[in-house]
Amino acid sequence: MTIYWGTVENPVLSARAFSAWYGKAQALRDVHLDIPERAVTAIIGPSGCGKTTLIRAMNRMNDTVPGFRAQGEILFRGVNIYAPRVDPVAVRRRIGMVFQKPNPFPKSIFENVAFGLRVNGFRGNIRERVEWALRRAALWEEVEGDLHRKSGDELSGGQQQRLCIARALAVDPEVLLMDEPCSALDPVATMKIEDLIRDLVSSVTIVIVTHNMQQAARVSDHIAFLLLGELVEFGPTREVFTRPRDPRTEAYITGRFG
Amino acid sequence: MVREGLAQSLRELEEEVLRLAAAVGGAIRQAVESLKAQDLELARRVVLGDEEINRQRFALEERCLALLATQQPMASDLRLITAIMHIVTDLERMGDHAAGLARITLLIGRAPLIKPLLDIPRMTDIALGMLEEALAALRRRDAQAAQTVALRDDEVDALHDQIHRELFLLMIQDPRHITQATYLMWASHNLERIADLVTNICERVIFVATGRLAELNVTGAALAEDLPGPYHGDREDP
Question: Interface of chain B against chain A, CB under 8 Å?
Fold first, then answer.
């Protein structure tokens, strides 16, 4: 049984009776979760709880994983993204993703951001759009003079991650999924990404997976706590971190687990 | 990732709070004793002892701050630490009132008492009983018990009113009683405040146990409605 602190009006994304398996191992069990719009939702839980599986399911990133099987629905603005005839590439344009390790292409900074636009047949002014995306990712001022001279992989780790965020933002997605976006970064670079997340949330819905509880507390508006593939509790971050209702949530966030 | 370190620190912290509370309770008891027995030496010791209570309070506050800064406590741990920061402040204020009572002993000096002190020791017994029960409720994380303790504040208030009426009467009867009657009114006031501060501690116990922040008002246990209401996800600045 999941504890919900309330209902979410007009969710952007929803999991409905969503279960997932890798071969015979069940990774998610009957998850019902509504992601509120223009807010940061953090998915937390111990290793192996299914948080990465869940966030990857939100833009069909698991499709190519051998043995992956899903049941139930992931609704994006009411449409099941797992329905037949739904194009996963179109899904991923509206629901972008940033990964644990920054993965820039070994191309210029400019090309890294322009790539997604070209793939998606963007017809506008690419230069302007690249600048717009780099500004949104709070990277523009640091790379303005090196757009064509420097390769994406010559940047620092934190800059690389912001470049990947710019690349994801270039196609103006409605949702940005972030899977442990700071786990490879130092504290200063981490703080910059966290500030960026808070800046971005006025224009894009963010779902972040993190095993850093303090990070979840700092950046998120809502917390979804997963345990053994089950959604245990979902509610406002401030409430869940001060007065969790489920004893399992209490045990996990106070570090008295196991 | 069982956080034994934090759990151990919290147990020690709670023990220290109980020790501070015992010191404060002792100071209150001795202050009233000094007033009743006109024991000026005992009163002086209580006044001097307040410094140690203040020192302990700051030491405990420092420990709470250190735990917040280094351990990033969550949920019940977070509630306990923030509650303790309030509780030690309340205890320190109670210590000030004990010193205030002892100063009244010194002000009255060897002058004969204008009336036998009966109600003031009764107020003291109730207030100290409340303190003891509030701390027991803290140990047990018992919100119900904390709420019941707070109800007894009404008894202390009633005695306070009664003492005032009686002292007014004495002052009207003989204006020479005015000085000492005023001192005794202050003594009663100190005890009335002590009981109020115990009520504050009860509010913190309820917060630790349930996560509810509610005012236990003086006329009864008017707890606020249950907190969980409609889902409001808007991030508010703290």
Answer: 1-3, 6-7, 72-79, 210-212, 227-236
Query: Within a domain: residue A11?
Result: yes
Strand A222-227 and strand A230-236: pairing?
A: antiparallel
Q: Is A55 exposed, middle or buried (0-12, 13-18, 19+ CB in 10 A)?
A: buried
Torsion of CA B209, B213, B219, B222, to 10 degrees: -80
Antiparallel, parallel or unpaired: β A175-179 and A205-209? parallel
Q: What is the mean pLDDT of residues A150-175?
A: 96
CA pair distance B127, B101, nearest whole angstrom: 14
Distance CA A133, CA A127 (A): 10
Helix (H, G, I), strand (E, B) or coil at A71: strand
Asked if A5's CB is within 8 angstroms of B231's CB, the reply is: yes
Confirm whether A96 is domain-assigned.
yes
Q: Do B78 and A244 touch (CB under 8 A)?
A: no
Tokens 């002014």 map to which residue? A125
Going from N- to C-terminal start, the domains of chain B cover 4-210
Q: What is the ipTM of this complex?
A: 0.74
Q: How many domains does chain A have?
A: 1
- Cβ of A253 within 8 Å of Cβ of B74? The answer is yes
In a domain, A158, yes or no: no
**Under CATH, to which class is B4-210 assigned?**
mainly alpha
**Residue pLDDT tens, chain B, 238 long:** 456 788 899 999 999 999 999 999 999 999 999 999 999 999 999 999 999 999 999 999 999 999 998 888 999 999 999 999 999 999 999 999 999 999 999 999 999 999 999 999 999 999 999 999 999 999 999 999 999 999 999 999 999 999 999 999 999 999 999 999 999 999 999 999 999 999 999 999 999 999 999 888 644 444 444 433 334 444 343 3
Give a yes or no: residue A247 inside a domain: yes
pTM confidence score: 0.81
Closest A-chain CA to B212 = A243
What distance in Å separates the CA atoms of residue A229 and residue A233, rounded to the nearest whole number? Answer: 12
The first and second tokens of residue A180, run together, are 């442990």
Domain span at residue A212 reads 3-103+179-253
- Count Cβ neighbours within 10 Å for each residue of A155-185 and write b for 16 or more, e otherwise: beebbbbbbbbbbbbbbbbbbbbbbbbbebb
Angle between helices B40-71 and B75-108 (to 10 degrees): 160
Do A222 and A230 form a contact (C-beta atoms < 8 A)?
A: no
